[in-house]
């Protein structure tokens, strides 16, 4: 028994912010951002919230998979940027979908979150505990961004992606996942809920702070190692992998990972040029785009790999049906 993705969906806010607009806020340029990150535009919430985007992506994934919400046994939302703390975002999705039989909880693992949500649902489904699961990554990183810090505000965007999974016959591939809390200082964000008033909302201390170079070096070393280890653990050769779907953080990171793995860049799809880094939503949005435009098809083996704050990282193999 294993878990099989049978439907995907995504949602991106309609407001699109391009690099030139960022250049009106901080000292930077379209050219610098494109060259150093690959990002050209990002979608930014106006009326949307993390909850509303999660609900929309989930609705689209259920429709795509032809799954009734009442069949869902499990809903996991990966987010670090929800507009609510209680109830959890997954319970709000349950309410919106009327998924009355589902057990719901949120996960907080930043940019590794969708991979960990996938692994968690996979464990439940392959273990025979649940039959149908919905996993979602939804992020409003614009709310956590210091729009005066050119080292970070150029990178991030908002959006949500979702996948529906069913238990079914097939091989369960074992993931490789790692955490290194000792290096957590490289990427931090303090909770805004530790103070009794809201004066701190404009305080950079309560926005994302990042040692960009440290995170970059960590990603290009650890992600290829985790992918190699995952392939080895499951007896899968690189030639069998059609796509490596990496967390969409920076095109230079994706290129460096491809080089270290000795795999052609064509196997590493990217959509960060349009969305920026949407943390735990990025892999889910890309999966959905690739399913819709036909790049994903039955029989393909796909690697998904996440990395980010924690530090956390990991890779999983998905056999596409
Ligand atoms: O989801 C996972 C989380 N995050 C990541 O994956 C991010 C990983 N890191 C990165 O993507 C890159 O480190 C950044 C894109 C954040 C920065 O690129 P970099 O090539 O590492 O630049 P840098 O920090 O080494 O800065 C190089 C120069 C500096 O100027 P000096 O000291 O050489 O004069 C910076 O002050 O570029 C300057 N700089 C900028 N210039 C124009 C930094 N940010 C900008 C900017 N526009 N936005």
Describe it.
This protein has 321 residues and is an alpha/beta fold. The protein has a single domain, classed as 3-Layer(aba) Sandwich (Peroxisomal Thiolase, Chain A, domain 1). It contains nine helices and 13 strands. The chain has helices spanning 19-22, 30-37, 50-65, 89-97, 113-126, 212-234, 251-261, 272-275, 282-292; strands at residues 2-11, 16-18, 41-43, 74-78, 103-107, 132-140, 158-168, 176-179, 187-188, 209-210, 241-246, 301-308, 312-319. Strands 1-7-6-4-5 form a five-stranded mixed beta sheet, with helices on both faces. A four-stranded mixed beta sheet has the order 8-13-12-11, sandwiched between helices. A hairpin with a 3-residue loop joins strand 12 (301-308) and strand 13. Helix 3 crosses helix 4 (89-97). The protein is globular, with a radius of gyration of 18 Å. Bound molecules: oxa(dethia)-CoA (UT7). Oxa(dethia)-CoA is lined by residues 28, 32, 36-37, 111, 150-151, 154, 187, 212-213, 215-216, 219, 249-250, 253, 277, 308.
